[in-house]
Amino acid sequence: MTRQDLRGKRAFIAGIGDDHGFGWAIAKALYEQGAEILIGTWTPIVKIFTTSWSMGKFDESRKLSDGRMMEYKKIYPLDAAFDRPDDVPQDIRENKRYSEMSGYTISEVAAQIQKDFGHIDILVHSLANAPEVTKSLLETSRKGYLSALSASSYSFVSLVSHFGPIMSTGGSALSLTYIASERAIPGYGGGMSSAKAALESDTRTLAWEAGRKWNIRINAISAGPLKSRAAKAIGMIDDMIAYSKANAPLVKDLHAEEVAHAAVFLCSPLASAITGSILFVDNGLHAMGMAVDSLSTAKAHPTANT
Which pLDDT score is estimated for 232? Predict the structure, then answer.
């Protein structure tokens, strides 16, 4: 990867829970370009993550192209479903996975990072959750729908709202979305498609508001399907990947590193005039208007799959 020189920049990546997925790949790519990394991990799995790190379970994944190892400056417990301590229900506070943790709401994490480091330059939102994701939209309850929007889209609004004041001028905030925001993806349920649509709409509005208020840029990457541990919860990730390989212009797997390289560009000075954009990194699947592996296409164009 061409060096972007992010030395002296500090990035907070919200949503890393293991060494799979886009959040990890983005953190690694930013670190390789010289950025200092802060990690926000879902509160209930912080101990699992830090233990796995210290025991060397991530060592192979941490290796950089020059032989160095990715390091993080500090890890913060984060539950992006809550903005302030008063928002946390009593049953969550008393849950054994939370009771030993503190300061995990968005406002508290932002305040602690400001206390620890003063400011950040890059903010990455790499988290989503829908408790009813395996249900169709028609079967999704109001509670499940609103939960999906809260955790997957409003969380980005809240992060920008709370971190914007401590971001440096010209800073960059980035989220990850999916083509279900604008195309029907059967099986991608529980309100997740609605959450992604909201996330993309908010990207444009936040670009205007945060750009004028703090002079920071807001963009999103619409990534193709990746078999991360989190994606397995959808229950159809293998079919999504197979469909993409059969129908996208580029017949190949999508690698997390390819999304990470695009993220580095959007967070670097090379993208200083880019904001409010949704960048597709999906092997070109978004450009297609017909599935080339369908029977109708095969009859009309016998060589379509060659």
Answer: 58
pLDDT cut 90: percent of the chain above it: 86
> Which residue do the tokens 């939209």 mark?
137
Q: Which of 72, 76, 154, 188 is catalytic?
A: 188
Place of tokens 């997957």: 152
- CA angle (240, 246, 251) in 5-degree steps: 105
Q: Distance from CA of residue 40 to its chain's centroid?
A: 12
Domain segments of the chain as ranges? 10-300
Q: Are 265 and 271 in contact (CB under 8 A)?
A: yes
Please tell me which residue in 98, 154, 178, 243 is annotated as part of the active site.
178
The pTM of the whole model exceeds 0.85: yes
Which helix (DSSP H) or strand (DSSP E) does residue 121 occupy? strand 120-125
CA dihedral 135, 131, 279, 119 (to 10 degrees): 170
Alpha helices in 1-138 (DSSP H): 21-32, 46-54, 59-62, 90-94, 106-117
- Is 3.40.50.720 the CATH classification of the domain at 10-300? yes
Is position 98 annotated as part of the catalytic site?
A: no
- The answer to whether 154 is a known catalytic residue is no
Token readout for 253 is: 């797997």
Backbone angles phi and psi of 284, in degrees to 5: 85, 10
Categorise residue 240: left if φ over 0, alpha if ψ from -120 to 50, beta otherwise: alpha
